[in-house]
Write a structure and sequence with these properties.
The protein is mostly beta strands. It has no helices and 36 strands. It is about 0% helix and about 40% strand. The strands form eleven sheets. A four-stranded antiparallel β-sheet has the order 1-36-33-32, with no helix packed on it.
Length: about 400
């Protein structure tokens, strides 16, 4: 057992009843690392392997190292490195099976921040990355990147420099066209936001949910406002707002076309009057036909920066995370949501509590969780240095 695997996070009491599913160990990453943005989670390739690219190996410092996970052996192996280190970026699998990495930052432990305006594409056959010739109109991180029905990729929002010396949430959006390898402007979002979530609905529209927005103060706070992008018209339009403001949440497309939102918090980096001081356990469900949100039942525990994945059974697995009031320890607790009964069930707990981890649905329906932060802040024995983990584990329902 490694030092990190012995440190198990906590949370509110789990739902009553026997746990469903269990986690088993998988191979360790060569180095411990975190992926703070859900958009940078490892991607399942067409051959069934999993590509993990970049991330932060120590607090605030990115790596260019890329790895492949082999489900048959349970081991990680090196593959071609990114052309430049990045984290808080996005990874999107394209229609041809290649993977697009967009934006991010090389470091966040010193000022001024440098937001990357570059992108690169991974070729699984050659195991190499090739820079995209054109540049983003704006360097950005903690944005979303969504594959549209026509094969283009919509990149929206994030954090960047809106004016000299001013780092703020962005409204801007742009489109990557794989056929030409170039970028074209898209209509800006109605609201600036970062650390939001984007879900492509069955009709091809993109639902953007919550995120942090700018305020008069120095720190952003969570928002409830949501909007829809129509790729045919190329326009954004408002839709129903969340019942609670959220950032650090997850949004998962369900089999019936509705969207489940879990966790998150209304606070940014600092507490703000009128916002809930802690992670949400109340969940919400979006009806695309009505454009409205309704309560979807309470999770066993509130959490932020967790991961949520739709399983082949139609249930949603929620794993890991932390409490937004402190971010001091990763949760080992996991839960399952049944969309038909709208009931939350207790799932087998992670062997290593973690947040800011990667989570990927494998081709056989299992879930791979890798890396992440185990301890941070005052809970970290080496205060000021996040304690990351190199462990990986697999959930079987």
């Amino acid at each position: 057992m490694t030092r990190s695997s012995a440190l198990i996070g906590g949370g509110r009491p789990a739902a009553a009843g026997p746990a469903t599913g269990a986690w088993t160990p998988a191979g360790e990453l060569p180095t411990a690392r975190q992926w703070p943005s859900a958009e940078e989670s490892a991607v399942l390739l067409d051959d069934g392997t999993v590509l993990a690219a970049g991330g932060a190996v120590v607090r605030g410092t990115a790596t260019a190292e890329c790895l492949l996970f082999q489900p048959r052996t349970g081991a990680w192996e090196p593959t071609g490195n990114l052309t430049e280190p990045r984290f808080l970026h996005s990874l999107t699998k394209l229609e041809n099976g290649h993977v697009l990495a967009v934006g991010g930052v090389p470091q966040t432990d010193r000022l001024p921040f440098r937001f990357l305006d570059s992108a690169e594409v991974y070729d699984p056959a050659a195991r190499t990355w090739t820079p995209v010739p054109g540049k983003l109109s704006t360097g950005r991180s903690t944005h979303t990147a969504t594959l549209l029905p026509d094969g283009t990729v919509l990149v929206a929002g994030g954090e960047g420099v809106r004016s000299p010396g001013a780092v703020r949430p962005l409204r801007s959006a742009e489109l990557f066209r794989p056929a030409t390898g170039g970028w074209t402007p898209a209509e800006p979002m109605t609201d600036p936001r970062l650390d939001h979530r984007a879900v492509r609905l069955p009709d091809g529209r993109v639902l953007v949910v919550g995120g942090n927005t700018a305020t008069a103060g120095p720190a952003p706070v969570g928002q409830a406002f949501c909007e829809l992008y129509d790729p045919v018209a190329g326009t954004w339009s408002p839709t129903g707002s969340l019942r609670l403001p959220r950032s650090g949440h997850q949004a998962t497309l369900l089999t019936d076309g509705s969207v489940l939102v879990t966790g998150g918090a209304g606070l940014g980096a600092r507490k703000a009057r009128g916002h809930t001081p802690g992670s949400q356990w109340r969940t919400e469900r979006y009806n695309p036909a009505a454009g409205t949100w309704t309560p979807a039942g309470n999770m066993p525990a509130g959490r932020n920066f967790h991961r949520a994945l739709l399983l082949p059974s139609g249930r949603v697995l929620v794993l890991g995370g932390a409490d937004s009031a402190t971010y001091d320890a990763g949760y080992a607790q996991a839960a399952l949501y049944d969309p038909r009964s709208r009931v939350w069930l207790r799932a087998g707990g992670l062997r290593t509590g973690r947040f800011y981890c990667s989570a990927t649905l494998l081709a056989d329906g299992r879930v791979l969780a890798a890396g992440g932060t185990v301890r941070a802040g005052a809970a970290d024995p080496g205060y000021g240095r996040d304690l990351l983990t190199a462990t990986s584990e697999i959930f079987t329902e």
